[in-house]
Amino acid sequence: MIIEPLEIFRKVAEEKSFSKAADDLFLSQPAVSSHIRNLENEFGTKLINRSSKHVELTPAGEIFYEEATRIINQYKEAKEKINQIQSVVTGTLRIGASFTIGEYILPELISQMATGYPNLNISVTIANTEEIAQGLRQNRLDIALVEGVVNEREFMVEPFMEDEMILIAPAGHPLTKIRSVSAKDLQGFVWILREAGSGTREFSDHFMQALKIKMQHSYVFSSNTGVKAAVISGLGIAMVSKLIIQKELKTKELMTIPLDKSCPYLARDFVIVRGYDTYFTKAAEVFLTELSQFGQDKHESISADAVE
Fold first, then answer.
1. 75-100 pLDDT, tens digit each
2. Considering the entire predicted model, what is its pTM?
């Protein structure tokens, strides 16, 4: 590939590590080092200062990083335009997703797409909303799907699905026995929370601030699985997406806490996020078309389960 040395250089610069870059690119570390030396020989200057502990770009390296990124993007854009002429959806789509979407939406969606688009490679990075936004800034992701709030001055943001949020408790919890729970009833309980930076944590915080709920104590987990397990074990109550507890509701390992009309409607948007200057590839167009239909079908399926 004619831009391989540029991509290797960019990966080393972003990871600030030869070994991490080698792992990400499935190359040996000596091969990565050889490419960097060849680039430095070609330009007649050092591009990267490296020691046993630090890898930093030189001033020349900073310039080369910007230009290499521009060239790589132009190469991909040209390749994509040629593929569009040939009506072939190919290449690699780098998707960032916050935990709820990455764990409960994308696996099923990508599975559905695999048959129709066998030449499309999809790489998924799952992290909290704040970390995914950083991935977009650093050009490590082409598109992001998150449930948290992002800066709309910095990114293009478009909703694709409404996500219902619910309060959950273990079976037999006192709050599950109240027909209609008020804000007053929620005072003084132990809460299970997601980590700061996650969309679910942000939603929970706003909910408790709006109703002036005071917790007895809280425990923080950095995954949906951890939150569910903590609630099932009787550690506390939690605010979660209804998407993540379908099985546990059916088996009655978890119960919903019914809120009265004084409490706000619990819903948020799942949103598509991308940079304003990101080239919109054919692969991205196909993916978003499939995502839109999938989101609609998923919402209708959950609503039907709720009626039953």
1. 888 877 776 655 567 778 899 999 99
2. 0.65
Beta bridge partners of 48: 57
The whole-angstrom separation of Cα 101 and Cα 109 is 10
* Residue the block writes with tokens 């591009």: 47
- Work out the angle between the directed axes of helices 4-15 and 29-43 (0-180°, nearest 10): 110
Choices 3.40.50.300, 3.30.360.10, 1.10.10.10, 3.20.20.70: CATH for 1-86: 1.10.10.10
**198 Cβ partners below 8 Å, 6+ apart?**
98, 99, 128, 129, 130, 148, 222
β-strand pairing of 155-170 with 238-241: antiparallel
Identify which of 185, 265, 201 has the alpha carbon closest to the alpha carbon of residue 239: 201
Q: What is the DSSP letter of 147?
A: S
Q: What angle do CA 205, 125, 100 make, to 5 degrees?
A: 35
In whole angstroms, give the CA distance from residue 140 to residue 135.
5
CB atoms within 10 A of CB 190: 15
Residue 230, token pair as written in the block: 């903590």
Cα 131–chain centre separation: 8
